[in-house]
Amino acid sequence: MKKVSFAEFGGPDVLHLIDAAEPHAGPGQVRIAVRAAGVNPFDWRVREGQILAAHPVELPAGVGQDASGVVDEVGEGVDGVEIGDPVFGEGASTYAEFAVLSAWARMPAGLTFEEAAGYPSVVETALRIIHQVGVRSGQTLLVSGASGGVGSAVLQIARERGITVIGTAGAANQDYLRGLGALATTYGEGWVGRVRQLGRVDAALDLAGSGVIRELVELTGDPQKVISIADLAAPELGVRFSGVAGSMPDALAETVGLILRGRLHIPVEKSYTLAEAAAAHIDSRAGHTRGRRVVVV
Description:
- The chain is of the alpha/beta class.
- About 30% of the residues lie in helices and about 25% in strands.
- It contains nine helices and 15 strands.
- The strands form three sheets. Strands 3, 5, 6, 7, 14 and 15 form a six-stranded mixed β-sheet that branches. Strands 10-9-8-11-12-13 form a six-stranded parallel β-sheet, with helices on both faces.
- Helix 3 (about 120-135) crosses helix 8 (about 250-260).
- The longest helix is centred in the middle third of the chain and has 14 residues, at about 120-135.
- The radius of gyration is 19 Å and the shape is globular.
- The N and C termini lie close together (about 10 Å).
């Protein structure tokens, strides 16, 4: 099978499309014929060797953790799913023609494989950090870097829970944020003042790692009311860095419910082929994403 792999840590040029042995489902797992794989910042952070302590990597390694596809192998002890079922979920080395998933859910009707591949880690992260930051119905949450996948999920989940959201993003994405129910403003010079004009901030999330931790603490008045998923230096300022996932099966179940109720939709901004994985990483690292990027197999 074809698979994207890297044999050394480094830039996107270390990614190569290779011929590899097919993986097989172990106990409690399913294998899918991959139709699409989500592109996440986690993918290029691992490729660069940024987060080895939390996620040890044995080289050569595959790339990707989110995927959608059709079940073609069911491991021992697995029930509730059959060969031929369309599913989406989390596994390993998902930029490939076949991948093994350790957590999955049936795809809701009407969802394309490209769309489905963009949900698992994004929604798990959004649910986790909303819970960790402690924001409640009737309060206001500031989201820095709100137009990407996690931001898109946070805005919609927060709205579902009665939380007001102020979102920062580039000028081109202001209408997109407003369409998701956020009070929108641009980042850049004077952004703190623009946020203050929109209202009081009870909690804040840093999704972009753009060096705004001090300002987020200033706006909330308490470093315990700020969570970052993108700035590894956040703990130096007393802010929690959230990088360890919670329950993916629970997150997938909530994702399905939100989609079926019409409360969650994350658009796919751009799709790439397996051979274009390096370009996908370059674009993901550059930011300014509106929704999700996926690799189509």
